[in-house]
Amino acid sequence: MNSPFQPLAGLRGLKLRDGVTARAINGERMTLAIVDLEPGSSVPEHHHENEQLGFILQGSMTFTVGGQKRELHAGDTYEIPSHVPHDAVAGPQGCTAVDAFAPLRADWEKLERLDPFPPDWPPT
């Protein structure tokens, strides 16, 4: 059995799109991801079968979920039901968010893997 413990800096990132990376760990039925968005980067409107819950660790992000738009800051949470369209734009300092997905984000397995690099969070 592999160790159940890993440092965030040791996880290989996934390139979700230009300016947006995720470090994900998979359990049997869910994915947990730390997502870093560079300042001004965006994730265009999309939807997926996965239910998504999350919160902002640092920075800010303008999020639209099912037509409702809100600027989120550190400590704010969000809930995205399965198949509901959503998009995001990072604020001027960028954003680090934590996302939980159920079921697993199996579609991420085909994404480009990055070599480990220092995370934006926790702050140093």
What are its keywords?
124 residues; globular
Describe the structure.
The N and C termini lie far apart (32 Å). The model has no long low-confidence stretch (mean pLDDT 95). Helix content is 0%, strand content 52%. It has a domain of 80 residues: Jelly Rolls. The protein is mostly beta strands. Strand 5 and strand 6 form a beta hairpin. Strands 1, 2, 3, 4, 5, 6, 7 and 8 form an eight-stranded antiparallel beta sheet that branches.
Helices, strands, pairings?
Blueprint: E1 14-17, E2 20-26, E3 31-37, E4 42-46, E5 51-65, E6 68-73, E7 77-80, E8 86-102
Antiparallel strand pairs: 1-2, 2-3, 3-8, 4-8, 5-6, 5-7, 5-8
CATH level-1 class of the domain at 26-105: Mainly Beta
| Gyration radius over CA | 14 Å
Number of strand segments = 8
Identify the overall geometry. Answer: globular
- SSE string, helices as H and strands as E: EEEEEEEE
N-end to C-end Cα span: 32 Å
CATH topology of the domain at 26-105: Jelly Rolls
Instruction: Please name the CATH architecture of the domain at 26-105.
Output: Sandwich
CATH superfamily of the domain at 26-105: Jelly Rolls
Give me the number of helical elements: 0
Instruction: Tell me roughly what share of residues is in helical segments.
Output: under 10%
Strand content: over 45%
Spans where pLDDT lies below 50 across 5 or more residues: none
Mean pLDDT: 95
Largest sheet data: 8 strands, antiparallel
Indicate the structural class: mainly beta
